[in-house]
Amino acid sequence: MKKKWIAVLLAATMVFGATACSSGNEEKKDSKKEADSGEIEPCTINFKYWADNTEYSQLMQEIIEKFNKENEKGIEVVGEEVPWDGGAYSENLFNACMGGGSPDVATWKLTSTPLFVNNDLLTDLTPYIDKWEDKDDIPENIYNIMKEAGGSEEEMYVMPWNVQVLYVYYRPSIFEKAGVEVPKTYDEFLEAIKKCTMDTDGDGETDVYGFGMRGAKGGQEPWGSFIYGEGGDFENLTSKESVKGMQDFIDLYENGYVPPTAVSDGFQETVANFQSGLTAMFIHHTGSSANMEEVLGDDVAAFPFPAGEGQWTSMGDTETVIFESCENKAAAFEWVSYLATGEGQKMWCEGTGQVPVSQTVQQGEYFQNNKFMKASIEGMDYAGIIPIKDTTTEWISTVWPSTVGQALTGEISAKECMEILQEELYK
User: Fold this and answer.
1) What is the CATH number of the domain that holds 294?
2) How many CA atoms lie within 13 A of 340 on its CB side?
3) Angle value at C-alpha 354, between 351 and 360, nearest 5 degrees
4) Is the CB of residue 221 less than 8 Å from the CB of residue 314?
5) Residue 85 gets which letter from DSSP?
6) CB 39, CB 331: distance < 8 Å
7) Which residues 6+ apart lie within 8 Å of 139 measured at CB?
């Protein structure tokens, strides 16, 4: 399905690209003038969004209603919910935009950004953000990620809304039994994994593993933290630092510090192993925290992935964008900024358990009293994303799990593994 979606998007790009590009520059000039003037006329803003469940859907309608009632500029947001449909949301939105039927504003995933930007479908938000009084309420790193997704160091086409920052879950009872403190450095983290790997009943068999490694699809996110922990990065996966991080990952498997099923373990397996007490730690985000507390009670806590020579953790996202076809961009920005730092930010993140991008909202009681939120917020300054390339989807789905699996089982070396990953991501 993903390959089919990419093919559809690229085909649409070839057919409509010239038309979209020809009108985009003129609209961008008008957008800058509008941002500079600061004038907002009463208008209607059409907003498309998806909601993961009926509770989220109702919450969004409540936020829209509150904004419409309380903004004093005559702006009326009309929300239209459309299904995510396994990612077809983005495909359908692209086709609508290319056919001249785009909304004014929509909720967004960063992975869709390059295609839309390359066809001049998105508004450059930079002039609006530069004049925005709440600009400094969002961490600089978040802005940098938005720019990176659009392939620019200056222009920003995506407005931050809420994120999911990965951190390390751990079992305090296992830490206590192993005599381990919460690690503060990457080296201490590796040592904690080793110490938490135990034969607790004396039968000569390991019955607690220090870390729940995810070798199947999706495992590239926690894996990235090991690469950066040794000073490596995604830009050069073949550097000696990146290879060293890969070797750390291999050593955990070869030395028996992770379950022997780690090569094929996915999210469900790592969760089950952690909750059963088979593993002392694993990496995920707040999306699993409620279930963790329901199952484990007080015997679950979290810490941000610690720094070594470098530091990185994966960030998931849900953002917003304003389309170039929007005739009232300044008014549209009022709405997306309300979601980013206003009451809409607080209502949405408290209601859904997502991590706010607003530092003011982060300081609220709800977030400061939640240990999982705090671990997420602490990781926000060094969070990042896998580089968005034409190859990324295939790299994540197929290349990464198969290549890393070969490295874990000794079929290829750490160096060979990283050479393949580099070549396949950047070809």
Assistant:
1) 3.40.190.10
2) 24
3) 90
4) yes
5) G
6) no
7) 357, 359, 380, 381
Which ranges in 87-139 belong to alpha helices (H)?
Answer: 88-98, 113-118, 126-130
201/283 same-domain check: yes
**Claim: this prediction has a pTM higher than 0.85:** yes
Predicted pLDDT at 86 = 86
Task: Look up residue 9 and give its two tokens.
Answer: 């998007």
Which residues, given as ranges, of the chain have pLDDT below 70?
1-38
Same domain, 405 and 267: yes
Find tokens 């059409």 and name the residue: 46
* Distance, CA of 144 to chain centre: 13
Q: Any residues with CB less than 8 A from the CB of 320 and at least 6 apart, and which?
A: 105, 106, 107, 108, 158, 159, 161, 336, 339, 340
DSSP letter, residue 110: G
Cβ within 8 Å of residue 407, ≥6 positions away: 246, 249, 250, 413, 414, 416, 417
Per the structure block, which two tokens stand in for 418?
A: 């990283």
Q: Which of 423, 424, 375 is nearest to 398 (CA)?
A: 424
Shared domain check, 118 and 224: no
SS3 at position 350: helix
SS3 356: strand
